Amino acid sequence: MYQDGDFRVSRRQPHGERWVLVTAPLTTHLIHPADSADAAWWRHAVIYQIYPRSWSDASGDGIGDLPGITARLQHLKDLGVDAVWFSPFYTSPQADAGYDVADYRDIDHLFGSLADADAMVAKIHELGLKVIVDLVPNHTSDEHAWFKAALAAGPGSPERDRYMFRDGKGADGSEPPNDWNSVFGGPGWTRVTEADGSLGQWYLHLFDTKQPDLNWDNEEVRAEFEAILRFWLDRGIDGFRVDVAHGLVKEPGLPDYDAELHILDGEIKDGSPRPPMWDQDGVHEVYRAWRKVLDSYGQPDRILCAEAWVRPQERAVRYVRPDEMHQAFNFDFLQTQWRAADLREVIQSSLEAADSVGAPSTWVLSNHDVVRHASRLGLPVGERRPNGIGPDDPQPDRELGLRRARAATTLMLSLPGGAYLYQGEELGLPDSTDMPAKYRQDPTFIRTKGKEIGRDGCRVPIPWEKDAPSFGFGPGAETWLPQPEVYGEYAVDQQVGVEGSTLELYRTVLRLRHERQLGTGGLQEFEGLGDDVVALVNTGQGEDTLVVANLGAEPVALPEGAEVLVASGELTDDGQVPTDTTVWARLA
Ligand code: NOJ
């Protein structure tokens, strides 16, 4: 570990009209102590998200599938990740791309069969990787057997009690039970037609009409989900990513919430009253029970990862207390603006918050719900994160976005804890930002009548080969969302073995992260390289790694004796770190 003054840096500083070289000592302070070298796998794993519709298509119908995935798994081994998380592949009418599950124990025919899933899981394990599946407990599909039974059984029945049915307000019950909206836009309640043809009760859906919310006060619901956990654990999977983990339990009485509902854009403001549908204390009991189920499977650990859009961080880490989940996505990191001070602050506060409950922090920059970071970081700094980018919106600067994305990832993968990658980011893939409206499928776009562009732009099928139909995604030329022409340039076969390509950068960074054991390292902050720089030392389990991300306008010199291990972009002729570049270095 470094002491103040152990290292000195020479840098050019303005001095009147001229620039002069000054040498200054660097000071450091510890922001996170090292984990033990043999910490459980999930405390430092890099987990790659596959969105099954869009990774690889074997059947040729233009939609990805499990046999297609199995055929290309070597890509992940070569990339150097530790685990794969699959967005839902269960039986589903696909009203929300599979986050509307009709049968939690079967595979949708679009993707294959349970036998295909077993073969895929076996292959992943053979490669030495872990498998995480998506669990969607907040709501089912309206085509789930339970919901159909609830409609048939009528008001007051045990079948209805599994969901959030209520009578409407007003003399004839024609007004919704409260004022909640759907996250996807429009009302959060839908009125049903009863078996006798009359207009009847209303059911709550925080998302699409086709995604009725379950009632987590109902014991049968709790028991069913524990059984679903066991079903997949018995098939050998290593963990679950838990969808809308902060939404299961609602405030009793379902009080009005006089505001628009958001989950995916981080608009739950610090200090505002806690919304009655999010982050209720009662939800933690559910995860304590699940943890017991997972722990009963013994070693190596099977894990739970929370998708919980919760602020502030002190509330968010309650999901990863020792007897609850193992990880939670760090959406604060994803939402941080490209400013050194903001990044320093979020890195420090994330680690502090996670350390306060003994959990590892996690890091993430992209997923299937947000504009890819190669595009997001090509938008002006300081603006609100858009929910999709359409042809009529200001377009991101593709070159700048990629440069910053590479720097951001190189910074992220130097940090201790777990990290999540989203398919295609290893290619530097931008969002599709000029997709015509007729192709769009995200319910957000449909329910807001196009006011919100939504998430289709980050869900476009992956390019594997530049000169093949659908860029090698599948045997057919058509894909369920159209691939922009420019995707050919990003294809895997254009990048493998090409020095300086984004794919080779990811491979190098992941290899070094593993070799230098950065996932379990301690973290020190280096001061003295300037306000526009994020400078850290990951102490690993042995040799230290200096990490310098330069977000300022001027190149930054590395401390004397630093030997560069990897850089997200070219250095200046005299070996300095240019703007929007991250470097890892060994310190002599
Ligand atoms: C979060 C998922 O990531 C998103 O894709 C989905 O639309 C909602 N939850 C509803 O399940």
Structure description:
With 588 residues, the chain is of the alpha/beta class. It is 22% helix and 18% strand. Strands 14-13-12-8-5-4-16-15 form an 8-stranded parallel beta sheet. The protein has a 6-stranded antiparallel beta sheet with strand order 3-17-18-19-21-20. The protein has a 3-stranded antiparallel beta sheet with strand order 9-11-10, with no helix packed on it. The longest helix is centred in the middle third of the chain and has 16 residues, at 219-234. The protein is globular and about 85 Å long. The two termini are 13 Å apart. Residues 96, 99, 136, 207, 243-244, 307, 368-369 line the site of 1-deoxynojirimycin. Residues 96, 99, 136, 207, 243-244, 307, 368-369 line the site of 1-deoxynojirimycin (NOJ). It comes from Knoellia koreensis.
Key terms for this structure?
18% strand, Immunoglobulin-like, 588 residues, single chain, alpha/beta, Oligo-1,6-glucosidase, domain 2, 3 domains, 22% helix, TIM Barrel, binds 1-deoxynojirimycin, eight-stranded parallel β-sheet
What separation lies between the terminal Cα atoms? 13 Å
Mean pLDDT: 94
Q: Taking Cα atoms only, what radius of gyration do you get, to the nearest Å?
A: 24 Å
Beta fraction: 15-25%
Number of helical segments with 4 or more residues: 14
Kindly name the structural category: alpha/beta
Shape: globular
Low-confidence stretches: none
CATH architecture of the largest domain: Alpha-Beta Barrel
What number of domains?
Answer: 3
Give the helix level as a range of percent: 10-25%
Largest sheet: 8 strands, parallel
Number of strands: 21
According to CATH, the homologous superfamily of the largest domain is: Glycosidases
CATH class of the largest domain: Alpha Beta
Q: What order do the strands of the largest sheet run in, or round the barrel if closed?
A: 14-13-12-8-5-4-16-15
Q: Give the names of the bound compounds.
A: 1-deoxynojirimycin
CATH structural fold name of the largest domain = TIM Barrel
